[in-house]
Amino acid sequence: MTKVYCTGSSVVTPIGSSVIEVLEAVCSGRSAISLHEGWGEPFCASLFERNGVDGPSSLVQIGVEAARKALSQDSGVNPASPRTGIIVSTIKGEIENIGREDVSPAVTAQKIASALGVVSTPFVTSNACISGMAAMIQGMRMIRAGVFDDVIVIGAEVMSRFFVTGFQCLKALSPNPCRPFDAGREGLNLGEAASAVILSKRPSAWELVDGAIRNDANHISGPSRTGEGSFQALSRVLPLVDKSDIAFVSVHGTATLYNDEMESIALHRAGLDDVPICAMKGTFGHTMGAAGVLETVLSMAALDEGIVPPSRGFSEMGVTYPLGISAEERPAKGNSIIKLLSGFGGVNGAMLLRKGGMQ
Q1: So where are the chain's domains?
Q2: pTM, 2 dp
Q3: Residue range 338-354, pLDDT digits in tens
């Protein structure tokens, strides 16, 4: 089977626009999550600065910026080659511009592709909260199938009144900074970000070993109470790695009552109770279509530094099965990472990455 590697990566967030800078913010406990007003009830979120909370969308701009930074790390990628693909991950695209222009995510993806000089037809993944991971898995499969030699994967999301009020109707937003897996958690925070990775057949330090997507068909917005979908996705990638080599699991960790509980059950069923985990949404909030890419990029950077990132907001275990989570940075052991995500519609995903691909 063709091996697929991550040859470039980048992040663009409200707390920094370099991977190292943002990782340092994660480790120091710095966050841009703050209280915002103007869209119904006050809500906590990590947002880019703008002129008023109804500022213009910047999804295309931050998506292009993230991709260019990732491309600058890999001189072997030619965007103008038909053998280079591009996948854009976003849940809602530029829906805030509805009535003024075509807000189809396909149109947004084409804007980004054109700005980068990509000539192949862009693809879009919009699969709830696992969209970023789904895009990376799709890119991996396209390379293995011989469709492309390189794939640019971009996850990007900005918030709008439409998006925020939808979550307010679900009563899912916390009025305070979110606290993943903590006994006092009140709900999620929203976040804006863009992140990009370059996937390639050319060997690099990080290999995307495999990934799996499973749907538990439980509920339109509620996770399976038994963690079935996440457990099934984990069961696909776990046989490919020795448990002792798993440095940590980067979990979804939305800080909602049911998601965190479901993940604890899935990890317990998979025998991963004692493996370190980290939840990054206490720093960024839930960045939706960007989350899978952003959190994967920062997880790889953390292991490059030999650490398990701290989980901001956690202090007391609030799920049935105790997990290896900590609010403090810890030394990492092992060369592999598992990324876990779940989302609306019963979608769940797990992805295995391994450091040392060039060795």
Answers
A1: 5-200, 208-355
A2: 0.96
A3: 999 999 889 999 999 99
